[in-house]
Structures are given as structure tokens and as C-alpha cells.
Amino acid sequence: MFFSIKDRWKEEDGSILATVLMTLTVLSLLGTALATASFANVNLSSVDRAYQSTFYIAEGGANQTYASIETIVKDVYNTTSNQAEFYTTFNNKLDELDNKVLTNFSSVFEDNPSANISIQELNTTNPRNYQIVSEGVIGERARTVTRPFQINWTSGNVLNIPDRAVAIVKNDINLSGSSALKGNVYIKSSDPNTINMRGNPSITDGFAYVPEVAVDQALNHSGGTPPGVKPNIDILPWTAYHQIVDSFPVFPSYPLADDERVGSFDVIKNGDLNITNYQADGYTLNLSEDISLKNISINSNYDLQINTNNQNVDIVVNNLNVTNGKVKIIGRGTVNFYIKNKLAVGSGSEVNTGGSINQVNVYLAGNKSVNLAGSTNINGSLFAEAADVTLSGGGGFKGFIVTGGNNVTFNGGSFSDLLLLAPNANVNVKGGAKITGTLIGNSLTGSGGTGVTYKDMSSEFPFDSGGSTSDDDLITKEPSVEIN
């Protein structure tokens, strides 16, 4: 038995070593697996950290660019005078930020991050939508985000009109016949006899305000109903009036409208819009973007309808000639006509009759005279760079007239809700013309049975010389969103 046990021990020699080796092998495999898992986890964490860092670089680039845009918006708004000039200048400034590479970031994993910036204009109306596209790059990794924002240009100017002013003049007021002014009159000049009244004219429902040194010598009358004369304790805002006139806008530039045919008639051909054929009567110009035209011609009492799609839209045109026809505005938007050469509206023509005065703004370049005659009716506003303006023939105008010209004449007709700003002009009201609103000019002459009655319209004034508005109203942003 002794030898049997010994033999058995001999048979089991090395089993402990085998067990130890097997145990070490298992532990080694487990250790390798754990090390591999740990390394993979560390690697994944590094990848995820780099991935997240790239997103933050992209977002940081978008935020930096948006901050720069906020500054640009305020600067451009305060140095431009109208919507078209604002967007033209604003877009030129945006070009300086477009395709820019931002590198002012701290290094990440010994790599120098960067953000590639592009800015996209999404429409050409007002309000106008844009988006910032920012690609964050760290090494070979890249992520891209967009930050949309919207610009909403509004007129920042409220025209400063003294209390209940029916007339504001630099030099003098001359009334004859039975002409009448109802409201306060304001005169800048301190010369004697700045208020001259002959026949049976009247200035009622207010006072005449003149410089204090001229109170006792301003009135020269031989009949009628003169006003009481008081010293003007307020400074008349002539500088602001001239700034508005001098802020005539730089015209924008847009592509020519596409050709269009109705039946066998070319309504739009090579940039000419012709409502001169029965097939074009009632044609609707559907505007989803701003356009240019060479000429617009309407005759034979035909209708042109302009669909604004509830947006503010621009039409740049060489000549607008409505010899006999109607222009109707569809939608709640505003049409801005930028006329380079000639404006002619006459012979019973109508522009936006029955519509709101804020739906049509006409800008006329140069010093060409404007004669709106023949029972013409217009609801809208006219800003003439340097034109003499005549409204005659029993027509009507409702809105605002601004001109740098030297003469403005109202000869007959009814002009309700009208504000004239013509600080360089001699204003002549004759032929029984009736006006409600305010007249601002170098001088004022009234004759015959004319009448001007004060009505406050300053809060709706559509033109400005640059102003201020809330930043929250001017620009609004949306959160950044990642794109693939």
C-alpha cells in the first residue's frame, strides 16, 4: 500500500503547476479584456469629447457672427433712410462676414479649432429671413449648425409737427379772396408783414405763431378774419425737415421681370409691362420678390392689379405712365415704386383708390416736373427728389407728398388727409382747392375760395432720415440647429 500511494503521488506530480498556469491564463485573459474595454472606453470618451467640442465650436462661431450682425443692423439702420437703402447697405456689410474663417478658439487636443462661416439670404421681402451656417472643425472632425434670424425694417421717424399746425412756413403767408386756413400757423421769419391778408380771407381755429420780436409787426391785413398773433416759444424743426428731403434714397437694383403673355398679347416683354390691350385688362402682377421694369404703361381705362402676397415689395422702373387706367393693390403689403425718369398719371386715372395710403410709396428721381391732372385720384405717398409738383383738374390725393422742388401748386380738387413737406417750395393753393392736413413750405399763397383745414397725420409718415427702433423689433433670432 505504501508503494501504491507513492505511485499515486508520482502520477499527480505537476497538477498544481498546471492549475496555477490555467489560473494565470484566465486572469491574463480577463486582464487583457478589462484593459481592452478600458482603452476602448477611454477612446470612446475622447472621441465623444472631440465630437461635442466640435459642436460647441460650430455653435460658438454662429454666436460670434450673430453678435457682429446685431451691431451691423443698428449701425446701418441709423445711417439709412428707407427700406431699400437699408437692405442694400446691410447685405453689403454681411458680405464682409460671409465665407469667413474664425480661429479665435482655445486649442483642443493640441488641435487648433476653426469655424467656417457662411450667411444665406432666404428671401428678398420685408421682413427678410437669413441664416448663419457655421461649420466647426477640430482636426478631421466637423459638425455644422445653422442659426436663423429675421430682419424687420420699419420706419423709425415720426414727423415733428407743432401743435395743430395747418401751415408751417419759413418766410410768409399771403391770402386773398375768401381763402381760409383753419388751425395754427407757424412762421420762422422775423421780418415785418409775414402774414398778408387781402379781401375776405380768414385764419381761424388757431393762432399765428411768429418769433417774439415780430409779434407786433407780423400781421398786415385789410379785411377778412385775422388770427391772434403769439410768440413762438418752440424752435421749428427746419433742420429735420431738410434732412428728410435730403435723405432721398439710393435706388436698389433687381432683375428684370420675366416675359409673360396673356392670350396672344405680350403683357411683359423685354422689361416693358403693357396694360394697353383688352386681353391685358385686369392682369395681376403677382409679386413674390422685388423686380425691375423698363416701362409701365396703362391706358383705355384698363386695370393693373398688383398682388403683394402680404409683403412689402419694390418695383424699379424707368417710366410709370398711367394715361388712363387703374392700379389696384391686392393684399396687405406695400408697393414701393422707384421711378428713374418720368411719372405721369392723368385723365381720370386711379392709383390704389379705396386702399390704405400706406400701401403705395412712389420715389421719383431727379428734377422732372410732376403734373397730376384730369380727375386723378391717388391714395399713397410721393417722395420726389427735386421735382415741382402740380395737382390740378379736380383730382384728389390722399397721403404724403415730400419734395425738394421749388414749387407746389394745388389747382382745384379735393385733397383729404394730405401732408405736404416741401421746405424749399413756394406753395400755391388756388382754383377752389380744398385740403385737410398740413402744408410745410418756404411760403404759402392762398386765393379764391380755397380752404386748408388742419388734420393730424404725422404718426403715419412713411419716409424718414434715419431713426431708432427697438433692437427686439428690428432683429429676431432662433436657436442654433445642427444639420447633417
Summarize the structure.
By secondary structure, the protein is of the alpha/beta class. It has helices spanning 2-11, 15-79, 83-95, 238-246, 471-474; strands at residues 100-102, 114-121, 128-138, 141-151, 165-175, 180-182, 184-187, 195-197, 202-204, 207-210, 219-221, 228-231, 260-262, 265-269, 272-275, 283-286, 291-298, 302-307, 313-322, 325-330, 335-345, 350-351, 360-364, 370-372, 377-384, 389-392, 396-403, 407-411, 414-430, 434-446, 451-454, 475-477, 481-483.
Descriptive report:
With 484 residues, the protein is of the alpha/beta class. It folds into 2 domains: 43-156 and 473-483, no CATH class; 165-460, no CATH class. It is 21% helix and 41% strand. The chain is built from 5 helices and 33 strands. Helix 2 runs antiparallel to helix 3 (83-95). The longest helix has 65 residues, at 15-79. The mean pLDDT is 87.
The overall strand count is: 33
Strand content: 35-45%
Largest sheet: 27 strands, mixed
Distance between the termini: 83 Å
Total separate domains: 2
Q: What is the number of helices?
A: 5
Q: Specify the overall morphology.
A: elongated
Mean pLDDT: 87
Radius of gyration in whole Å, from Cα? 37 Å
List the helices and strands and how they pair.
Layout: H1 2-11, H2 15-79, H3 83-95, E1 100-102, E2 114-121, E3 128-138, E4 141-151, E5 165-175, E6 180-182, E7 184-187, E8 195-197, E9 202-204, E10 207-210, E11 219-221, E12 228-231, H4 238-246, E13 260-262, E14 265-269, E15 272-275, E16 283-286, E17 291-298, E18 302-307, E19 313-322, E20 325-330, E21 335-345, E22 350-351, E23 360-364, E24 370-372, E25 377-384, E26 389-392, E27 396-403, E28 407-411, E29 414-430, E30 434-446, E31 451-454, H5 471-474, E32 475-477, E33 481-483
Parallel strand pairs: 5-7, 5-8, 5-30, 6-9, 6-31, 7-10, 8-11, 10-12, 15-17, 16-18, 17-19, 18-20, 19-21, 20-22, 21-23, 22-25, 23-25, 24-26, 25-27, 26-28, 27-29, 28-29, 29-30, 30-31
Antiparallel strand pairs: 1-2, 2-3, 3-4, 4-32, 4-33, 13-14, 14-15
Helix pairs in contact: 2-3
